[in-house]
Specification:
binds beta-D-glucopyranose; 14 helices; Rossmann fold; 14 strands; 2 domains; six-stranded parallel β-sheet; alpha/beta; single chain; disordered N terminus
């Protein structure tokens, strides 16, 4: 209705705030109005990222910010240092300052209920970024990758690396039994459960028939989860496993790791225990180790044969989806979902846009990561982004 009024700038602002308070414009549940879209430079979007400790979130934050700014919006980008109260405060401030829409990658997916309620009360839409925010009806949209398939891809890469499957997914020549250990991400991250479920559904048959042996016996997510996805915690757990389970000559042949940072911790523990490159005469070969995110240090490990694989998730495309959804909301439209079934957050099924993922082994680095412009060949060679 407000679109029909001949608005001066001042009355546009008034109309917008009335629309926000009133809880929606005509014909849709959206609180946006056409006036906002006409003037992005008056619109600030809050972007809340979990931590700068992991490269991917830095790339995500930068990509979202740049793409929104290219469209003329103002962006308030904050990192919360993996600290839940910090993220809560940052979101509180964004809402108080009047940010018109929030894009949030949660640290603890269950800890943002009151912030999201405040956002809804202020008429601001919330896009859950990569990690689903749980237990709140005020999540308006979810952009992510197909997280169950990430887990399937990680398990498949483990099976392929061990030679149980060939690269086309057919049975390979290796028969086992192979000793493996399992790791999962942070239990408060919804994704960690999807990754682990996808992986375990894929590995189960091989564990059941004895091809794979989880020597520690630790197969439940609660036993193998790493709080806050911390590299040091993963290193410590691998060290403990080596001492408790592999101290009488048995060797680890494979490790399911859901994230490159954890994989680096696991690799350090193994290297300290005498595992090394297969080329070192006498060294115990490094197990087949999986990963996720194609972090540059891990891509170098893959190029050098230390880590076997990673799952590449193109954060540029995820940022693009978040921005597309944000712009739709700000225009008063509904963003296009490609999944409306999978992501039940405990309060509602959140309409989602899910992107596909790519498994990267050594032979794929050039095609998937260099040719696509994600890294330069020089960065891969150095193991460092420039
Ligand atoms: C993300 C992964 C990432 C992990 C640790 C997950 O929620 O989906 O890409 O490796 O968090 O940061």
């Amino acid at each position: 209705m407000s679109r029909k009024l001949g608005l001066t700038a001042a009355s546009a602002v008034l109309a917008l705030s009335l629309a926000a308070c009133g809880g929606g414009g005509a014909g849709s549940s959206s609180s946006g109005s056409g006036g906002e879209a006409a003037n992005p430079s008056d619109t600030t979007i809050g972007v809340s990222m979990p931590t700068k400790e992991s490269e991917r979130w830095i790339a995500d934050g930068n990509n979202v910010k740049k793409q929104l700014e290219d469209k003329g919006y103002k962006v308030d980008l904050q990192y919360a240092n993996n600290d839940i109260p910090t993220q809560q405060q940052q979101l509180d401030q964004m809402i108080t300052k009047g940010d018109k829409l929030l894009i949030v990658a949660a640290i603890d997916g269950t800890a943002l209920g009151s912030q999201l309620q405040a956002a809804a009360d202020a008429g601001s839409k919330v896009i859950s970024y990569d990690r689903l925010i749980r237990d709140s009806k005020n999540v308006d949209f979810y952009v992510s990758f197909d997280n169950y398939k990430v887990g399937v891809a990680q398990a498949t890469a483990l099976l392929t690396g061990l030679g149980i499957l060939d690269k086309d997914g057919n049975p390979g020549t290796a028969k086992g039994p192979f000793n493996i250990e399992l790791f999962a991400g942070s239990l408060d991250d919804n994704n960690a459960h999807f990754f682990f479920d996808g992986a375990m559904d894929t590995l189960k048959k091989y564990i059941d028939d004895g091809t794979l042996v989880v020597k520690s016996g630790q197969t439940k997510i609660e036993q193998v989860a790493i709080l806050r996805w911390e590299q040091e915690t993963a290193q410590k757990r691998m060290e403990d496993l080596l001492t408790s389970t592999y101290n009488s000559g048995d060797k680890v042949n494979g490790v399911l790791s859901p994230y490159d940072g954890l994989s680096r911790g696991i690799i350090t523990a193994l290297q300290n225990a005498g595992y090394g490159p297969t080329t070192d005469s006498g060294a115990q070969p490094m197990p087949i180790i999986t990963g996720q995110d194609a972090e540059i240090a891990s891509v170098k490990f893959i190029a050098d044969g230390v880590q076997s694989s990673t799952i590449f998730k193109d954060t540029r495309l995820l940022a693009e989806q978040a921005v597309t959804a944000a712009v739709a909301f700000l225009k008063g439209d509904t963003p296009k979902a490609n999944d409306t079934k999978t992501y039940d957050n405990g309060q509602k099924v959140v309409p989602s846009y899910l992107l596909p993922v790519v498994t990267v082994y050594k032979d794929d680095i050039q095609k998937e990561l260099v040719d696509t412009g994600y890294y330069t060949a020089d960065e891969v060679a150095k193991g460092q982004a420039s």
